[in-house]
Amino acid sequence: MSPLPNLQTKGLIVISALATLSLLCTLSLLLFFTYRFIFWKKYYKRYIGYNQYVVLMFNLVLADCIQSLGFIISLRWIATDSVTASDPACFLQGIWLQIGDPMSGLFVLAIAAHTFIHVSLGHQIEHRVFVAVVIGLWVFGVVTTIIPIAAHGRYVWYPAVAWCWMTPKYESMRLWTHYFWIFASEFFTVVLYAIMLIQLRRRIAESSILGEHNSESLRRLKRVIFHMGLYPLVYIGLTLPLAAGRMASASGHSPSVLYFCVSGSLMTLCGFCDSLMYTLSRRSVVLEPEARINSSNKMSSRRNKSSVAHQYGASVDGKGPTNTTIARGRSDSTEEMIGKDGLEMTPMGVVLQHTTIEVTHEAAYNSASSNLSGARDRNSMYH
């Protein structure tokens, strides 16, 4: 395509600007994660790479970074006032978009599935299984990028309306190596978050009769519901327009260049929105050092016995009731979605319910000779 229409040039300028914003955000977050992975001993008691949510977040941001690199090549088309299949930039743009778009969606789905497994099913994924899944996703992304090249050669990447991607001649290849996985990610992400939203709303309804002392927990639950509704809505809002436009092109009703420029601009925002949304909504896990969180939890538990730190297993003194909730340390995953900041989530079984057992002991005899026996009984009962 040469020369480019004025409308297309303006659209590519917007796409490039937003891609630059997403690239800066994702690169910054990747550098931050990499620094924490290398110098983890300064911030954590154990290797941060065992935190499954952080690893998934790292891979999501990496996929978004690749996608941003693909769209930022549009600067080349603005500079040359053309989109040319023989240009090496066209081949590079096709590869980066082919792997970046679906992998971003698959890792959004992976985070949703990980949260669902942990929160709704109460199951922690084994580390080996988790690593195998992450590696498998990337292998899948590479394979779906190699297949079109192996089948049709380098010119499978071709000027496609506004930028370089897979030529319209290969609609079936477009669907099964790219857009099918984007649609599948959208669908299953919505399903998983919808199930968790229903469960959370049910717990809010059940807990409303427990009195005002649960207002803080209810507030946190409502904030979690907001976040869980926000994740799929943002992802679908950013990715569906472009995917729908490509599918419309396959049916012979191709949208205008303006439509593709607007939908492409939305798609380029995935990196910026994911970096902002997933980081801030769980910042206690992603950003804050472990020592700081532990110290803040200790201070809050001293101030308020009904605090979240207490709910997580802060035991009361030996003279009072014994809390049956198992004491927890820093989570590997998404256990703390309703934490002190209302941003992480506990397993659903301990969100709003405490079970306490009070054990009392009375001496069987009042005589002084029974004191030693009574003391031994007390020791055995509490130890």
UniProtKB/TrEMBL annotation:
Membrane topology: Multi-pass membrane protein
Region (Disordered): 294-334
Signal peptide positions on this chain: none
One Pfam family cited in the UniProt record for this chain: GPR_Gpa2_C
Transmembrane segments: 12-33, 53-75, 95-117, 129-151, 178-198, 224-244, 256-277
Gene Ontology MF terms: G protein-coupled receptor activity
Entry's localization field: Membrane
Segments forming domain G protein-coupled receptor GPR1/2/3 C-terminal: 218-283
Cellular component, GO annotation: plasma membrane
Main localisation: membrane
SUPFAM superfamilies in the cross-refs: Family A G protein-coupled receptor-like
InterPro entries, alphabetized: GPR1/2/3_C (IPR022596)
This protein's record includes keyword Transport: no
Domain of life: Eukaryota
Key words, A-Z: Membrane, Transmembrane, Transmembrane helix
Name recorded for this polypeptide: G protein-coupled receptor GPR1/2/3 C-terminal domain-containing protein
Source organism of this protein record: Aspergillus carbonarius (strain ITEM 5010)
